[in-house]
Design goal:
The chain is built from 19 helices and no strands. It is an all-alpha fold. It is globular.
Length: 361
């Protein structure tokens, strides 16, 4: 193979650092381009080991749960069920690891965001929360018994993401509907391929059998079971109490990250998933933008950056000081214009960005 030819397939997909490697580097040997991307990552966020491991745990766990559900839903196709019994278990996760290109970009991005939320929740235990409540006073949720069910639902949903286990430990796939559908069809394709290889007769009926099982899973899916959706539900039930000026800061101090996100999204008139993604994985300019739009002071911005260190280890003391200086230079008209752009639908915004990039070229 020529040193200047393009690597494709699973050997490269599993260790590809970022998409920009192949952009504008046609005259650079591929191996050198990969080295450049790793050592000079431009302004891209760092995917540190903890985030990568947590992302794989969420991916593998959700895939394992979907595979289990599909295997159990094959009563209408005993031949397919018998063929799957002869296959390895688990089957889908090893196939995805061997063929990572099966994962759609949106699904992988969502799993990375889920992993980031888990890292934000994981370092702190119940004792930390109780100590914070004693020092700063409880959140308003504790004063409203009618919110008890919503608070408990949020705690249970967070607990599911925090449960210990490896990549093959089933995890409830409490995904948004579009990502859940992508995941289920992916797992179904893996199982159907394996079943067809084993079945001597009746292999042509395998796709229809899996299609019937997939549609049933999709019909039964509850996308509101995840902790981000539960935090949104809690804030909605709080009503006007959620608009208290000091509440987001108090939630962050007490390490109620998803409650902080839901409160911020309410104030900013944005989707909680978008706010979460910007806080955990977006550029620091987006982080500063969100904080200023919420009315955060210079001290609030420094506190926010320090709180995000479990997901953003690059936020050293030196970086925080430098970013705080840039934060002071932001103007209110600049912030308002940027926030208006962020409130537009993501697909529309992506198309506008693409057309502007093409026009500039």
């Amino acid at each position: 193979m020529s040193a200047y030819s393009s690597h494709t397939g699973t050997a490269m997909a599993g260790s590809w650092p970022m998409a920009r490697v192949m952009a504008g580097m046609s005259a650079v040997p591929v191996t050198h381009a990969i080295d450049l991307a790793f050592f000079f990552p431009a302004d891209a966020p760092v995917r540190h080991d903890a985030l990568i491991a947590e992302t794989r745990r969420h991916l593998g766990g959700c895939i394992a749960a979907v595979e289990m559900a599909l295997r159990l839903s094959m009563d209408h196709a005993p031949g397919v069920s018998a063929a799957l019994d002869r296959c390895a278990d688990p089957l889908a996760w090893p196939m995805v690891r061997a063929q990572p290109s099966l994962l759609a970009p949106g699904l992988l991005a969502h799993m990375q965001m889920r992993a980031g939320v888990t890292l934000m929740l994981r370092p702190f235990g119940q004792a930390d929360i109780e100590q914070a409540e004693e020092a700063d006073g409880p959140l308003p949720t504790s004063d409203h018994p009618e919110l008890g069910d919503a608070v408990s639902a949020l705690a249970l949903a967070e607990g599911r993401w925090l449960m210990p286990g490896g990549e093959v430990q089933p995890m409830r796939p409490d995904l948004p509907a579009e990502h859940f559908a992508e995941l289920v069809w992916t797992v179904a394709a893996c199982l159907a391929t394996a079943a067809q290889r084993i079945m001597a007769d009746g292999g042509d009926a395998v796709p229809a059998a899996f299609e019937r099982a997939v549609w049933k899973l999709l019909a039964d899916h509850d996308e509101g079971a995840g902790p981000i959706a539960q935090a949104d539900r809690l804030v909605r039930q709080m009503g006007e109490a959620a608009d208290a000026p000091d509440l987001p800061g108090k939630a962050l101090e007490q390490r109620r990250f998803l409650l902080f996100v839901a409160l911020a999204a309410r104030r900013l008139r944005m989707d909680s998933v978008q706010v979460t993604d910007m806080l955990l994985l977006g550029p620091l300019s987006d982080l500063a933008l969100l904080c200023r739009a919420l009315g955060g002071s210079d001290g609030d911005y420094r506190h926010l950056m320090m709180a995000l260190r479990p997901v953003r280890p690059a936020l050293t003391d030196i970086v925080i000081v430098a970013e705080a200086d840039r934060y002071q230079a932001m103007s209110d008209p600049q912030v308002e214009a940027a926030m208006q752009a962020l409130r537009t639908p993501a697909t529309f915004r992506a198309k506008l960005d693409h057309l502007r990039a093409v026009s500039a070229a």
